[in-house]
Amino acid sequence: MSRIVDIRTSRMRNFIAFQRDPLGLLVEVLQDGDVISLRSGEKRPSYIVNAPEFIHEILVAKEAYFRKGRSSEVLRRTIGDGLLTSEKEEHRRQKKYLTPAFYKERIQAYARIVAEESQRAIESLQDGQPVELHDEMMRLTLSVIAKGMFATDVAERKKELADAVDIAIRESARTLFFPFIVPFGVPTRGHRVHKRAIRTLESVVREAITDARKRPDRYEESLLGLLLDTKGEDGKPITDTEVRDQLMTMLIAGHETTANALVWAWYSLDREPDAAAKFHAEVDAPGQSEGPAFEQYRKLKYTQQIIQETLRLYPPAWTILREAEREVEVLGETFPAGSSFLISPYAAHRNPRVFGDPYAFRPERFAEESAGWPRFAYFPFGGGSRGCIGSQFAMMEAALILAELGRAYRFERTTEAAAIPEPLISLRVKGGLRMRPCRRT
């Protein structure tokens, strides 16, 4: 018996529903079957994948049959041929030389930067003065990435760069979910704005590359220094274009996702007083703020569970796209070349057959239940060879920022209205979120 189920509604209704509320559609069909056919035709059929075992097959066991396809094509406009957009052998080559940037000793050094930049953020906040939390978290994580990966201080350009990232992400999302891709050379208003944003981001990256060529000692502990020391198979250094693409990738993907997760974490803690009380008790515990930053992070067990639970309910990478390059058999089902698959961590993480009370924010579940979950029931960082290379860094950064800021402040919403997720390239709060930092005494 086939495990593929046709969606119950028409193609036109599905298209309209996805354009209006993609998250709602994905959650709506979560319980309808393991693999949902969107009835989009025989030549290039499309599917929504719900079952963890099918997700594992596509992302891990049979990953050689698939490519990212459209998502890479769109993101390549902004970040070039970096780790996020490269495919197959090129992706494996890049991942091999980038992996040392995320070794434990490097993450320990990054932790110190996270703590330092968090303290600067604390000093910039005013007790009782509401802030746009997304902007604050974006600027903070941007500073961390710039210092940790580029050994560059962007304090004077944080707003300009954060605005450029925002534009690039919004324009990329608009293109990704449009029925067809308009060539980037067509001078639409959106393309002009997008290209200006890219030039702004490139200016920082290229200035850092130029300076690193002149003063390599200053950059030797950073990702930029690692890239400049990297040799290709021919023994020659990788090109400045490839260095640019990797730095642009880290600049875009390495801070916006963490910023969004932090916004959702503060929002969730404000809505759940019991969780907030446990969090503050942990960060206030005697000895918690002593010692190297990375050692402080390792002691933040409940804070790490808060981040994990935030990533369950609000995974920044809310959808994963794959396209079959050739005919492939997955768990007894045959899919033709050109088949496309939409895998949604956002929907899968709300599966009531896996997670008890799936819509509740309950960090404790990661201490009590997680061992019994099927593989790929929870996968906020993707999986397989294309799983997020910086997942350990992201967890450390988010937990340490939460702890540092939470030791000094609690954040209160300025409205009781529920935050609405906005699915762009990553999952944001629609319209932003104003919160009031209240100094803890």
Description:
Heme binds at residue 388. Its cofactor is heme. InterPro entries: Cyt_P450, Cyt_P450_CS, Cyt_P450_E_grp-IV, Cyt_P450_sf, Cytochrome_P450_Monoox. One of its GO terms (molecular function) is oxidoreductase activity, acting on paired donors, with incorporation or reduction of molecular oxygen. Belongs to the cytochrome P450 family. The structure is a single chain. With 441 residues, the protein is of the alpha+beta class. It has one domain (4-439): Cytochrome p450 (Orthogonal Bundle), CATH 1.10.630. It contains 19 helices and 13 strands. It has helices at 11-20, 22-28, 52-61, 70-79, 88-98, 104-124, 133-150, 158-176, 189-214, 216-219, 223-229, 240-253, 256-271, 273-284, 293-299, 301-313, 345-348, 365-368, 391-408, and strands spanning 4-6, 35-37, 46-49, 66-67, 131-132, 320-324, 328-330, 333-335, 340-343, 409-413, 421-423, 427-429, 434-439. The strands form four sheets. Strands 1-2-3-9-6-4 form a six-stranded mixed beta sheet, with helices on one face. A three-stranded antiparallel beta sheet has the order 5-13-10. It has a two-stranded antiparallel sheet with strand order 7-8. Strand 2 (35-37) and strand 3 form a beta hairpin. Helix 6 (104-124) crosses helix 15 and helix 16 (301-313) crosses helix 19. The longest helix has 26 residues, at 189-214. It starts with a strand and ends with a strand.
**Full CATH superfamily name:** Cytochrome P450
Percentage of residues in DSSP E strands: 5-15%
Number of helices: 19
Determine the N-to-C terminus distance.
Answer: 63 Å
CATH topology: Cytochrome p450
Enumerate the strands of the largest sheet in spatial order, edge to edge or round the barrel. 1-2-3-9-6-4
Number of strands: 13
Low-confidence stretches: none
User: Shape, please?
Assistant: globular
Which second-level CATH architecture applies? Orthogonal Bundle
The figure for the number of domains is 1
